Amino acid sequence: MTVLVGHAGRHGSTRGIAERIGERLAGHGERVEVRPLDGAVDPGGYEAFVLGSAVYDMAWLPEAADFVRRGFGAARTPPVWLFSVGAADALGRPLRSYAARKEEGRLFAYLTGLRPGLHPRSVRLFSGAVAREHLPPAGRLFLRATGGSYGDHRNWPEIDAWADSVARELAAGAARP
């Protein structure tokens, strides 16, 4: 079985998370391809999917959303795990957990609405790296006003644990028809 770990992002955080997930899955014996979700990806060669995108305005980037909408090239719906990369952990402490909960709920509704019948095995929200130049002026003001901080907010132990749980499901036969 070959697993596609597909990603869409603008500044490298999502790609880095996808690469880490791919490494973890490969470490568990899975055949993995980590690729950007552009028009060149043919979903027909994969039996399982771990897909992720950076989040802007509570939506995935168009290339990732389009990949999910187009389907997976098979009559059946293969096993799919979804992850999003946002900036909740960059916010100041008082807003951090509130923003993460609110964003997770909205993203779950958004993602499952992309394609009727899509039943992801897991949907996760991770924080990425936030640099001043990644934000528009209003975003920089908001971050400052909320006591937030720039930097790499990726929680590697959390990402590793999630990737390991995906690997366990794959090994247990979650991806077999």
Describe the structure.
Residues 5-141 form the Flavodoxin domain. It holds the Pfam family Flavodoxin_5. InterPro entries: Flavodoxin_dom, Flavoprotein-like_sf. This is Flavodoxin domain-containing protein. It comes from Streptomyces thermolineatus. The chain has helices at residues 13-27, 62-70, 93-113, 137-145, 156-171; strands at residues 2-8, 31-36, 48-56, 59-60, 80-86, 122-127, 129-130, 151-152. The chain is α/β, with parallel strands linked by helices. The N and C termini lie close together (12 Å). The protein has a single domain (2-171), classed as Flavodoxin domain (Rossmann fold, 3-Layer(aba) Sandwich). The strands form 2 sheets. Strands 1, 2, 3, 4, 5 and 6 form a 6-stranded mixed β-sheet that branches. Strands 7-8 form a two-stranded antiparallel ribbon. α1 packs across α5. The chain is globular. The chain contains 5 helices and 8 strands; from the N terminus they run βαβββαβαββαβα.
Protein traits:
alpha/beta, Flavoprotein-like_sf, two-stranded antiparallel ribbon, 177 residues, Rossmann fold, Flavodoxin_dom, Flavodoxin domain-containing protein, six-stranded mixed beta sheet, globular
SSE blueprint:
Blueprint: E1 2-8, H1 13-27, E2 31-36, E3 48-56, E4 59-60, H2 62-70, E5 80-86, H3 93-113, E6 122-127, E7 129-130, H4 137-145, E8 151-152, H5 156-171
Parallel strand pairs: 1-2, 1-3, 3-5, 5-6
Antiparallel strand pairs: 3-4, 7-8
Helix pairs in contact: 1-5
CATH architecture: 3-Layer(aba) Sandwich
Percent of residues in beta strands: 15-25%
- Major β-sheet annotation: 6 strands, mixed
The overall number of domains is 1
CATH class: Alpha Beta
Overall, the morphology is globular
Helix count from the secondary structure assignment: 5
Radius of gyration: 16 Å
- For the record, what is the CATH homologous superfamily label? Flavodoxin domain
Mean pLDDT: 87
Number of strands: 8
